Structure formats: C-alpha cells, structure tokens
Amino acid sequence: YNMYGWWVGELNSLVGIVPKEYLTTAFEVEER
C-alpha cells in the first residue's frame, strides 16, 4: 500500500488503511 500513498495503521486492535499524508501530519505535530 505504501507505493499508493496509503499505510496500514493499527489503533486499539483495529487495523485500517489510512492516507500517508494524514500520518505524516500527525507525527509532525507530535514532534513539535
């Protein structure tokens, strides 16, 4: 999925596919 810009994310035992841009934004906010 990475080549299509989507990542497989896991939250509270639930696995789903999320946009890479969404994850990148979330990580950038946490680092600040």
What does this molecule look like?
The chain is α+β, with helices and mostly antiparallel strands and 32 residues long. It has one domain. It contains one helix and two strands. A two-stranded antiparallel sheet has the order 1-2. The longest helix is centred in the last third of the chain and has 12 residues. The chain is flat and about 25 Å long.
Classify the helix fraction into a percent range.
Answer: 25-40%
Provide mean pLDDT, rounded.
62
Q: Rg to the nearest angstrom? A: 10 Å
Topology order in helix (H) and strand (E) letters: EEH
How far apart, in Å, are the first and last alpha carbons? 28 Å
Count of extended strands: 2
What is the 3D form? Answer: flat
- Seen as an oligomer or otherwise, the chain set is single chain
Summarize the structure.
The chain has 1 helix and 2 strands, in the order E-E-H. It has 32 residues and is an alpha+beta fold. It has a two-stranded antiparallel sheet with strand order 1-2.
